[in-house]
Design goal:
Length: 424
């Protein structure tokens, strides 16, 4: 099982004096707004975070402690729902300043323990304390209809269209894709699942097992992501995670390591069946052999490109072009132009350095314009693997297979020999 490494940004540490219980997280699609809800010393606390500002805390008085909490928001945060155990389901349309209860048609002793919504917020999915049904509401929670009957249903998740639904059922995760009997988790993985979410398109499912960590279930491959996590929410279609760890520290975790990104007209060392030759990246296609270390070769899995706007900047930041000049760098066959996040490798591949931190490169002098840039991943049974490849005589790190899929929504068609065109 592959293990992904995340870059983590700490947002806030909740004080121990808050006695945090039942913390739930949610986010808008872009991550522009983030939300949290938890029980603290007999009341509820709603957290609101907007665009790199500080967290705002709103206290919500409640008549009695809650048995469970769950939070979800629509695409832009214009409506947020919270299930509060036997106290009912509430919504806010002003970022938590005011909350209104939603009257519903559930049985008297039945209450919602987990809730999710579609992108527009008018369709809800839930499960209840009975653990026997998954419900759908198409009128913002006023009436509910059972769509699945089972046992020990704990948590639910929905993609933005509510076409793809997921639920923790007993010791597994079920989906309605192809029928509610389908499992997302191989029976060989024996874990107790506590929380889950999915991305907006519904092809990536993230699940938390307390004491173990997060798993991403994607393309039938379980990927272990991070330890010490108790709850989470995904955004930007699964590229980023909003998480809380066992110490009640709320973080942003980025699933994508720095991707190789090379400017058009760059040449890559390949094997053409007779000789090793440098070939322009524009003509490389799936199945071509690219040189890696120890006289080995790997087939190209994906080649994608997009338009890249190179900003004018005097600062050495990641998202601009840098130049390695021919004549000043040994073995360069031509000037090499990379984005700052591209990892440059040593010959041993034991060390790498992002281009923007490498003082051998200088900032590309032509700015505020669009250029075509290319990304390449190489064939591997390990979709997290990357390899050292030669570009214009220098070794850089290729992109892992899963990164191109996550970063661009690229769907790999094994029958296709064509590159994928990624629009901006």
């Amino acid at each position: 099982m592959e293990h992904l490494k995340l870059s983590v940004l700490e947002l806030t540490q909740l004080s121990e004096s808050m006695n945090v219980e039942h913390l739930s997280l949610s986010s808008t699609y872009s991550g522009f707004r983030m939300y949290g809800l938890f029980q603290s010393n007999g009341n509820l606390v709603f957290l609101y975070y907007k665009d790199d500002t500080k967290w705002l805390y709103y206290n919500i008085q409640i008549e009695r402690p809650v048995e469970s909490l769950c939070l979800c928001s629509n695409y832009d945060g214009s409506v947020i729902y919270s299930s509060r155990g036997s106290l009912g389901v509430y919504y806010t349309d002003n970022n938590g300043l005011n909350w209104w209860i939603i009257k519903n048609n559930l049985n008297k002793d039945e209450y919602i323990t987990s809730i999710a919504c579609n992108g527009t917020g008018d369709k809800l999915i839930s499960c209840t304390n009975t653990g026997t049904d998954i419900y759908i509401s198409t009128n913002e929670g006023e009436t509910w209809k059972s769509v699945y009957n089972g046992k020990d249903i704990k948590k639910v998740a929905s993609n933005s269209s509510s076409v793809k639904l997921y639920a923790i059922v007993g010791e597994n995760i079920y989906t309605n894709v192809g029928g509610w009997g389908n499992k997302c988790v191989n029976d060989s993985i024996k874990l107790v699942w506590d929380n889950l979410c999915c991305n907006e398109t519904g092809d990536k499912v993230f699940a938390v097992s307390k004491g173990t960590g997060i798993y991403l279930f994607y393309k039938d491959t379980p990927l272990f992501i991070k330890e010490n996590i108790s709850n989470l929410s995904s955004y930007m279609n699964g590229k980023k995670l909003l998480t809380v760890d066992d110490n009640n520290c709320i973080n942003i975790s980025d699933l994508l390591p720095p991707l190789m990104c090379i400017k058009e007209n760059t040449k890559i060392l390949c094997f053409n069946g007779f000789n090793e030759v440098y070939i322009p990246v524009e003509v490389i296609k799936k199945g071509d052999l690219i040189k890696i270390k120890d006289n080995g070769y790997k087939k190209v899995e994906n080649v994608v490109y997009r338009a890249f706007f190179n900003l004018q900047s005097k600062d050495r930041i990641e998202n601009i072009f840098y130049v390695y000049p021919k004549g000043k760098i040994p073995n360069l066959t031509d000037n090499l132009i990379l984005t700052g996040s591209t990892n440059v490798l040593s010959e041993s591949e034991l060390e790498n350095l992002p281009c923007y931190l490498d003082d051998r490169s200088y900032i590309f002098p032509y700015s505020n314009d669009f250029y075509a840039v290319y990304y390449i991943s190489l064939e591997s049974d390990d979709i997290t693997a990357s390899y050292g490849i030669w570009v214009n005589g220098m070794r850089i790190q290729s992109s892992p297979i899963y990164c191109l899929d996550l970063a661009h929504g690229f769907k790999y068609d094994p029958k296709s020999a064509n590159r994928s065109i990624i629009s901006c």
